[in-house]
Amino acid sequence: MSVASPVNPALTLQNKRWNGLRHVLEREGLFCKDNFTPSPDNLEFLQTSSKVLIIGAGGLGCELLKDLALMGFGDLHVIDMDTIELSNLNRQFLFRRSDIGQSKAECAARFINNRVPSCKVTPHFAKIQDFDESFYQQFHIIVCGLDSIVARRWINGMLLSMLRYEDDSVDPDSIIPMIDGGTEGFKGNARVIIPGFTACIECTLNLFPPQVNYPLCTIANTPRLPEHCIEYVKLIQWDKENPFSVPLDGDDPQHIGWIYERAQERANQFNINGITYRLVQGVIKHIIPAVASTNAVIAAACAMEVFKLATSCYDGMSNYLNFNDLDGIYTYTYEAEKSDSCLACSKTPQLLNIEDANTTTLEDVIKQLCEMPRFQLKSPALTTVMADGKQRTLYMANVASIEQATRKNLTQSLGELGLQDGQQLTITDATTPTALTLQLKYQTNEIEMS
Amino acid sequence: MSSPAPAPKSPELSDKSKKYDRQIRLWGEHGQTLLEAATICLVNVTAVGCETAKGLVLPGIGGFTVTDGSSVKEEDLGNKYVDNLLTVKAAVLERNCYSFFLDASYLGKSKALACMQLLQELNPDVNGDYVDESVDYILSNRPNFFESFDLVIASNLNERSLLQLANRLWESNVPLVYCRSLGMLGSIRLQLKEHCIVEAHPDNRQFDLRLEHPFDALREHLESTEVTSKVPWLLVLYKYLKLWQKEQGDGKQAPSTYKEKTTLRELIRAAMQTDEENYEEAIKAVNTAFGAGMVPKALKAIFEDDACEQLHKKSDAFWIMTKALKHFVVEENKGYLPLPGVLPDMTANTDAYITLQQIYRQQALQDADQVYHKCQEYLKQMSLPADSIDERTVRLFCRESAGLAVLRGTRIADEYEKSCRLQPLVEDNELQDPLTAYNFALRAYERFLSECGSIPGECAVEQDIGRLKSIASKMLTDLGLQASISDDVLHEICRYGGAELHAVSAFIGGCAAQEVIKIITTQYKPIDNTFIYNAISTESVTLKL
């Protein structure tokens, strides 16, 4: 090459960058997927046509953005409603100390756009609930790096609601695959969900670890653990003394300091050891331990599945990977099964069994909906159409005036409310973007009408 | 001159402690301190190497040094076919030029410098350094260079350089983590001589309660306390265990078979008045409450280890404590381990629970104290300073004694000379497990780099498959193995043409970083000794090679 014909070195380097990907995408392989066609079009598709949404720009999200940008993807979007905190910096490697307080999505996008010229990242400093079908429709694949189960369930519900059926079969164009990653300490999982075809988030709700809840009577009367003392201060003492005349904020060091001192006092009173500032913070904020390494591993596994789906070069993982590196490095891949009784993706109406409609109150039903492993709703609102064809709101907690008007229903039995065997309840909840329908199924059919 | 009294320590965490909060919850302040005191060396700037280093810089490793002899140059990237080792090196590196930690603005600069600066940017609390020399150059000119590091991470070496580096590090007793990332395949080979683990953090820890052979203070308490609905289940279980022992009448201390456990459960259930929670919990606990406190098999082997038997002035504190532990168990505690003193939560009123907890804690302190004094005795005998082992360390050691582990590694070079570990994996004259075959093929790939001076499959796929096949066959024959590797596997290796895919490198890098953290903090068990990952099938396996 002569000096007279200058070449943009960055451009040449960038072309060379993809040499590795080219080999994989442009050569025949014995282990490739059956319908894989080796061609330069594959890389071309990644760079110019494919569009992938990453939900969450935290521990997994930062890694996912980098991984996908370096696997050749050219058009990425990222949603995150959070801002950067000091405790993120041990793993969320796209952020620096000077970024604290800024939007994660915007900061992460800026970083990738500067470092990887072949990739354009569009940030959305927003909640997933701020967008509707028309937004999610534009993506080929959605990857989730979330720490919230509710958010996972919501986007899962959204993608299921977007399926279009013709006769009884799904229109393939309406399917947006979802890759979901999750980590906790040295453990993690990655899964591939083809909405309508493979197990969805709701099919396997029982895979999420149950939340630790201490019984209120233990907290109030017979504390034994430091956690019991902290919960006491949080649940009882804070409201009673209202030290700063504002609701408790886990991010306010003054608040945590106050709880630490009161919890220490209570622990001393009961001879309980082990209150530390870190423990207080952990209990108040439900902190999940996290390290850079597990996030890197799980994000990489997710990114590889996005790559396989987008290029068809290899069969996608079927469909659930468990990872754990406490003792050596352990991985286990298996096929999570689609559940026929899944509230979200089964096409048959789901039944809600009622032992005795005369003794089961509406409050009992709501409790069931929150506590049963297959439902795990947060704060369900219930409406129904009565025998006379009138729409009736049975209970709704989130709107104060309606809550007040419907509160009296809670203590009434289903019989007293005039609900019949086979009647359908329409339920809305934070865990799903669409309404759920459950059909009442009475075990005993004798209803004493009041 | 007297200094002013220190200000009362604020309970709020320090800035650094806040930054590392999410990981300190896993390996503790003591683990973090070890991490911050460690320095590592990264040999060769590749995506997998950088990802590994990233996983150590972010959590705050003390320092790192990047060594790489090449610069980010266009010419380097073009040179592929010259049959001399120096340019081969450039060619080998070419495939890796694209890491997240290199970009176009670094063209012309030292690759080691560029990588160091971009890694350093991730965490200003870490000390970065670089040496712009190749590993071959360093080994022949400054052979002691690597001895100052706590651990070395390497990748993308040809066979000759790999063996030279590995042998050197084995002699200097510096652990080596060697990472491979090629196409859809990755592996980690860990080479270290000896590694002692105190805190293994098992997933399901069994509580050591000693119900079947209670220590004096516990027996006294159990036998003098009335069993009501307000006491912890442990007291309920003890009461009916006694009854069970009496009815059984065969001297058996605790139920072990399903039938025996059922009998005990039924005894407890029969005595229930209403549905007392502590009785319910006692019934549930029948399955897990017994059997702890004995010396597990792994620990028995550690007790018999030469390193434990023959203490000397240079013995690691681990072995001094182990010998003291052995003395305590065998001579002073009737064969039982020191009591960990940790109780599960049990429904009970506060006083009943706390009293019980105090009894366990007190005994644990006493046991640890005896072990501590034995340690001091040994230190004195060997004229070592008394403060080389402190009480806190011994308490932790005693609490974890049931899970102590020692890992003894093998040399990487042995894999090329001894076939004993590979032999069981051969069946029908073929390396059976596909992951094992892939790993062996990756080794053949490295010999290809040494011998042929080019990257298998980079240009002539068909031709290179043949050459790789004969190299692999020769390697197997040299090992005395009557076996071959499937052609499909070699074809797949050549198809990659040296491609390093970022998602595979990030997976392997994440895993490798965690293994390094395990070694440095001496917590959690590392792999022993080869981890192989296949991203095509999302499968992995760990082999001891």
Based on secondary structure, the structural category of chain B is alpha/beta
* Assigned CATH class of the largest domain in chain A: Alpha Beta
Distance between the termini of chain B: 63 Å
CATH fold annotation of the largest domain in chain B: Rossmann fold
Count of DSSP helices of chain B?
22
Helix content of chain A: 25-40%
Task: Tell me, briefly, the overall form of chain B.
Answer: elongated
Which two chains form the greatest contact, residue counts included?
Answer: A-B, 83 and 90 residues
Number of domains of chain A: 3
Give the number of DSSP strands of chain B: 12
CATH superfamily of the largest domain in chain B: NAD(P)-binding Rossmann-like Domain
**What is the radius of gyration of chain A computed over CA atoms, rounded to a whole number of angstroms?**
26 Å
Largest sheet of chain A: 8 strands, mixed
Name the quaternary structure.
heterodimer
Q: Taking strands numbered 1, 2, ... along the chain, how are they ordered across the largest sheet of chain A?
A: 3-2-1-4-7-8-9-10
Q: Largest beta sheet of chain B, briefly? A: 8 strands, mixed
- Low-confidence stretches of chain B at least 5 residues in length (pLDDT < 50)? 1-8, 74-98
Query: What is the CATH third-level topology name of the largest domain in chain A?
Result: Rossmann fold
- Class of secondary structure makeup of chain A: alpha/beta
Report strand % of chain A: 15-25%
Q: In CATH's first tier, which class of the largest domain in chain B applies?
A: Alpha Beta
